[in-house]
Amino acid sequence: MMFNRKFPNSRLRRLRTSNNLIDLVSETTLTKHDLIQPFFIKEGLKGSEAIDSMPKISRHGLDIISSKVEQAITAGISSIAVFPVIDSNKKDQEGSEALNPNNLICSAISSLKKQFPEIIIIADVALDPYTNHGHDGVLKGNKIDNDETLKLLGEQATFLADAGADIVAPSDMMDGRIGYIRSKLDEFNHKDTIILSYAAKYHSSFYGPFRDAVGSKNQLQGASKSSYQMNIANSDEALHEVALDIEEGADIVMVKPSMPYLDIISKIKNTFKMPTFAYQVSGEYSMLQNAIDQGWLEKEVMLESLLCLKRAGADAILSYSAVELLKEFDL
Q1: How far apart are CA 148 and CA 170, in angstroms?
Q2: Are 253 and 277 in contact (CB under 8 A)?
Q3: Residue 201 falls in the annotated catalytic set
Q4: Active site residue 256
Q5: How confident is the model at residue 279 (pLDDT cuts 50, 70, 90)?
Q6: Would the N or C end of the chain have less CB density within 10 A of its end CB?
Q7: Please, how many CA atoms are within 13 Å of residue 218, restricted to the half-sphere of its CB?
Q8: pLDDT tens across 48-79, in order?
Q9: Cα(151)–Cα(282) distance, rounded to whole angstroms?
């Protein structure tokens, strides 16, 4: 048998002969500091209720959310993202409940920040949990009014910062919203509030369980968000979106969904060299967790999926599996 002359000197398996060696030369690491745990907080709920389309994930009432966050902190989580599930009778055409400084999510943030001042709280900036049509903006006829929506988003972001949010995260994908929100935050003395922009948020079919969780799926009634979320076929457009958001004042940019868009994460990180997050969305999570629960895949597959996001260039990851992973693995 003929071998390449370099063969005896280039045995790559030498570095795989033990787990310690494998860890020693690992190019990518995933730690507890990379993980952000999302929470759903439901108005009027006592205790917790399961979300059928998201195995092992629940909505929590204000009476119990602090204990759930405390458990996450004990597991090693230092950052959380909070999402509201408001009473349906408070939803209207313009999502006006989002502009109530004493609404569900502002109250929750204020309470959590007092109890756990060290925790980083990320608050979603969007109108879809508050509108009776399920869209992320003001609906005029059959179209979303981009510029009217900006006014509401700016005010919403300010109230969230007032409540104690460390990071506001516009997920609406309106044009110009980062610049508008930055100007409103600065105007109301929130110059240190961080903006995490959902800069490359695709018009994906992976969001279904999330819409179940926050109660916006029924409001949409099959309507499309394709006029403001990105075309799944495009990658150059993602770079354009990110460049605009950085210019407007984004401190961190995010790609959503994550695993089907590894190429986008990599391109953005390599191009802009700035903090880049990824969101392992509800559909991704539920797909993997269901397979784990059925015994079709091993539990390590969830860890593998997040490590791949880190390898692609993500600096941090929002994942519904964050707390459970920290309980299962030494990260």
Answers
A1: 15
A2: yes
A3: yes
A4: yes
A5: very high
A6: N
A7: 7
A8: 999 999 999 999 999 999 999 999 999 999 99
A9: 29
